[in-house]
Amino acid sequence: MRILGPALAPGALVFAAVALAGPAMAQTKWNLPSAYPADNLHSENLAQFAKDVEAASGGKLAITLHPNASLFKAPEIKRAVQTGQAQAGEVLISLHENEDPIFGIDVVPFLATSFDASKKLWAASRPAVEKKLATQGLKVLYAMPWPPQGLFSKTAVEKIEDLKGAKWRAYNAGTSRIGEAVGAQAVTVQQAELAQALATGTVTALITSSATGTDVKIWESIPYFYDIQAWLPKNVVFVNQAAFDALDKSTQEAVLKAAAAAEERGWALSETKTKAYMDQLAAKGMKLAPPSPALKAGFEKIGVTLTDAWLAKAGADGKAVIDAYKK
Ligand code: PCA
Question: Is the beta carbon of 146 within 6 A of some atom in ligand 1?
Answer without folding.
Answer: yes
